[in-house]
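Colleagues,

For the teaching module next term, I've prepared a clean inverse folding example: a structure given as tokens, and then the sequence designed for it. I'd like students to try predicting residues themselves before seeing the answer, so please don't circulate the second half yet.
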């Protein structure tokens, strides 16, 4: 891109307001008149205001006509000087959105063997050329595109363009920029170009995952493609790839299941994959050199090539990701995609900014890009075409790849209307598709009542939110590694622990709650972010006996699985996953991030216990009550001395084998004798050593002895 040198600058900041900046070096920044000139236009501007700035004089002028966006105009001053009229803040006005919203479903490439149609939304461009070539072709074609309506540019070529590389050359404010199609569904190596493909050649076996009756039936297990298989003892052949993650029947050196077969054996319902769309941070031609979680999004509608067996073949990554999804479905689990629509890797380099500069990103009151995400840019989801892009992208993955849910990274950056539009669009295909997200309240220039965060959960029905209240109450503050939560023996969190075990819907009084319904609460104590629970335990209590730390870890994980709401596990959590004390491993080497299958083999007893707790949850709807009123009616907490928690689940015969279930939690270092509400013969489903949906022993009477750092589940 060649920079344009101008003696002074003029910007269209509203549909009929032009701002002229005259530097003091140019006639001391003075001009008493300005004219707007263009094709068939030559008229004076009315100077409304004159503002002295540090290095220039700003003139705010009013035009009697609305300059037509997409056409070229010049501004003349009284000295005979002139400059082109650049697109300014008008691009962020409601009028701009109204003028140029395009509702069609044909942006990007529409391919048949006989012809291909290219469409690009670029309303501020004055010219666009398609750059088209076959791989290794030294003489690409440059073909003019035609502007049609609503700022869309189109080109139809009547020939078979399968495997042609393409990009767009866009002229805006007299400057040419080259950009990849934001709607590209296939890419060349490292996302350098879009690629025209035949969608019929990417079809994979369509195997459906079991449908959810309600969101609280889900048990989510989060994993990174590479982490699943890179460990030497993973048993996988194609380590670190889509196909490696899709392998079944893999075993560790001692013959225990690993990978996908192991995850199935746990009993979880959904495998949540860290971002699989194209991201920056790993060279696809040298993927062993670097590691990245994938939160550096570049191209949203195509898989990343670093997990493909052949990143040079545009079809391979698509087919292999579809094969992975089918493999997960074949194991009876759904797939949740981690999607990062809140920011891009580098704003200036993104197709959004190159094609429609200033539109897709939020700016503050001073016109500077906002940074609520902490990575330098915030997607302006409230703008109509940004919202459309997000909805279109979600629906593309849903319809083309048959995923079963979406986890929205930093969802609090996005606006409520966009998330509502996503939910409504997804419902048109299947209402049981899970939508969850991080509803943190972030510092982005969006009115508080429009942010898709936890504070506005009442406006976000059908969307689950990661519950930081649950996380911090049970394990202790994520941001103070030395703070211990309820499960780690801190009874300061006792009352909060009761509330979050009840789905955070407000037992006693609604105002004590966080959510309207339990399906909005994603309960977790560990994820890919921050320290693993095992590392937090070891750092915060370095002198504690390892056996005690394991009991505390087991108790905390069990509380996740027995709480009302949607449980979420970080892969390896069930066998004390460690990242060697590293709290942000987003680009740490495999040795830090991989699932250590040796560690799993060494902690089979804990894995079996957690499997038992999962089975208890799945076998008893009482732990999956879908309605807040049912929780208030059927979940009753006992009055016990601190730090104990005890509750009953009653009136449950119609939804399971048992008429009543009792749960007792003892996070202390001492045995605790608890008196039961009734003298009866109780079936034991879980104690300090074992957990199973099938009773493994019975107790008689009205007392039960709770071991330190443990829970008890009784049923009759």
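(Answer key — instructors only)
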């Amino acid at each position: 891109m060649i920079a344009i040198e101008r003696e002074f600058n003029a910007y269209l900041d509203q549909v009929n307001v032009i701002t002229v900046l005259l530097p003091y070096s140019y006639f001391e920044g003075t001009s008493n008149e300005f004219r707007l000139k263009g094709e068939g236009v030559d008229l004076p501007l009315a100077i409304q205001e004159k503002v002295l700035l540090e290095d220039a004089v700003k003139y705010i002028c009013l035009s009697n006509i609305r300059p037509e966006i997409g056409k070229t105009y010049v501004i003349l001053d009284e000295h005979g000087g002139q400059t082109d009229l650049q697109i300014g803040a008008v691009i962020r006005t409601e009028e701009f959105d109204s003028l140029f919203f395009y509702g069609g479903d044909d942006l990007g490439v529409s391919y048949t063997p006989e012809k291909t149609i290219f469409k690009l939304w670029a309303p501020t461009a004055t010219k666009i050329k398609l750059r088209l070539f076959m791989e290794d072709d030294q003489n690409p074609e440059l073909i003019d595109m035609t502007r049609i309506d609503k700022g869309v540019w189109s080109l139809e070529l009547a020939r078979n363009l399968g495997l042609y590389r393409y990009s767009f050359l866009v002229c805006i404010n007299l400057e040419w920029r080259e950009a990849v199609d934001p709607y590209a569904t296939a890419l060349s190596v490292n996302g350098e170009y879009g690629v025209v493909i035949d969608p019929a050649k990417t079809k994979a076996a369509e195997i459906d995952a079991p449908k959810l009756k309600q969101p609280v039936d889900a048990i989510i297990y989060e994993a990174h493609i590479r982490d699943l298989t890179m460990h030497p003892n993973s048993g996988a052949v194609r380590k670190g790839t889509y196909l490696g993650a899709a392998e079944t029947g893999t075993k560790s050196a001692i013959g225990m299941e690993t990978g996908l077969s192991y995850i199935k054996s746990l009993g979880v319902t959904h495998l949540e994959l860290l971002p699989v769309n194209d991201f920056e941070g790993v060279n696809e031609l040298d993927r062993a050199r670097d590691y990245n979680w994938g939160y550096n999004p570049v191209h949203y509608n195509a898989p990343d090539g670093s997990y493909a067996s052949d990143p040079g073949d545009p079809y391979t990554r698509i087919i292999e990701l579809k094969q992975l999804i089918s493999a997960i479905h074949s194991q009876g689990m759904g797939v949740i995609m981690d999607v990062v629509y809140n920011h891009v890797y580098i704003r200036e380099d993104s197709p959004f900014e190159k094609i429609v500069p200033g539109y897709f990103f939020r700016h503050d009151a001073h016109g500077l890009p906002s940074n609520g995400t902490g990575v330098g840019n915030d997607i302006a989801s409230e703008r109509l075409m940004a919202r459309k892009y997000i909805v279109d992208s979600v629906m593309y993955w849903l319809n083309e790849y048959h995923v079963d849910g979406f986890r929205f990274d930093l969802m609090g950056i996005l606006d409520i209307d966009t998330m509502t539009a996503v939910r409504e669009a997804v419902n048109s295909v299947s209402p049981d598709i899970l939508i969850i997200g991080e509803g943190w309240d972030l510092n982005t220039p969006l009115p508080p009542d429009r942010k898709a965060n936890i504070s506005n959960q009442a406006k976000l029905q059908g969307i689950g939110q990661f519950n930081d209240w649950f996380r911090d109450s049970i394990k202790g503050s994520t941001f103070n590694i030395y703070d211990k939560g309820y499960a780690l023996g801190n009874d300061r969190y006792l009352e909060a622990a009761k509330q979050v075990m009840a789905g955070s819907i407000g037992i006693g009084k609604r105002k004590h709650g966080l959510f309207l319904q339990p399906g909005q609460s994603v309960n977790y104590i560990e994820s890919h972010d921050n320290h693993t629970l095992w590392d937090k335990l070891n750092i915060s209590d370095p002198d504690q006996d390892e056996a005690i730390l394991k009991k505390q870890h087991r108790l905390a994980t069990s509380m996740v699985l027995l709480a009302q709401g949607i449980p979420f596990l970080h892969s390896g959590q069930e066998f004390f996953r460690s990242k060697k004390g590293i709290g942000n491993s987003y680009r740490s080497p495999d040795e830090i991030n991989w699932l250590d299958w040796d560690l799993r083999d060494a902690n089979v007893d804990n894995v079996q216990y957690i499997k038992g707790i999962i089975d208890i949850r799945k076998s008893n709807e009482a732990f999956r009550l879908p309605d807040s009123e049912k929780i208030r009616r059927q979940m009753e907490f006992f009055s016990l001395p601190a730090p104990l928690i005890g509750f009953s689940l009653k009136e449950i015969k119609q939804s399971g084998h048992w008429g009543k279930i009792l749960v007792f939690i003892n996070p202390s270092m001492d045995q605790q004798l608890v008196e039961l509400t009734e003298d009866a013969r109780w079936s034991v489903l879980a104690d300090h050593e074992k957990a199973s949906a099938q009773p493994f022993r019975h107790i008689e009477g009205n007392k039960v002895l709770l071991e330190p750092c443990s829970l008890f589940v009784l049923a009759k």
